[in-house]
Amino acid sequence: MPATNTNHAKGLLITGIGGLALTIDIPLLKLSGGEAWSVLLMRTGTTFLSALVIWAIWRLITPSAPKLVPGRKGLIVAGLYGLGSIFFITAVYNTTTANLVFILAFNTMFAALLSWIFLGERPRGGTLLAMAAMILGILIIVWDSVGTGNLFGDLMAACAALSLAAAITISRASNDDMGFTALVGVIFPFAVAAFMVGGTGFRVDEPWWLLFNGAVIMPLSFFCLAQGPRYISGPEVAMFYLLETVLAPVWMWLIFHETPSRASLTGGIILITALVAHSIWQLAEGRKRRAALAVRYPA
To answer: What's the pTM value of the predicted model, to 2 decimals?
Structure first.
């Protein structure tokens, strides 16, 4: 039991780092000034090469390095992450940012539903309460902008959220190390983007932003977030993706001078408060269980 509680705290930390790194993904995509398929090609290609280099170095240091794709379930997870990348980039260029982050936030609900149906993991009361608060915060943020985006882009955002939730659920069920699987999975959208760019031509005005995104941000965020299901539940992992909903508008304000509305600030405070309170509650519950175990089985 103590090891389980320690792993849960480790999972919260790792997943939190991944969630924070992911928040600057959209601003970096916007800074590149590229066309959708060209951006997808460069983003996924750089991510894939970076993942291979990191894995090769890890493999040289120790033979216990995780597999790139652990078995059949790993292939499915890689495919889901790859599909999610295509859906995400398509949504970025076909709907508003507010609609995009709002719909992506529903991966929390998708993950909770899939975990409940396929894994029998009924969310605890505290998790359900935190999820409800987060959804309330998101509704406040995008209340004035829901429905203003392109319908196709909204659908692509929903597909991205569902793909992500399914990948989290399968990773949780397998208990395999999927840290590199999420990164290797980008080879599929890379191939699709290469085919499309072959017909439309390549255009990225400032490619260094995509190089930084693909070489540093994507490997860090996807590796950490893909590690999360090994230690914490699917819905808990999905909640850390909500950090992008809160912080992406902040980075857009700092970089592009887009002033957040009062609704965005109010909703963001609710989201952050719910996420922090939930994490503190989980850690407190772990301490209580460790204390009870120590009393029951003294050394």
So the answer is: 0.75
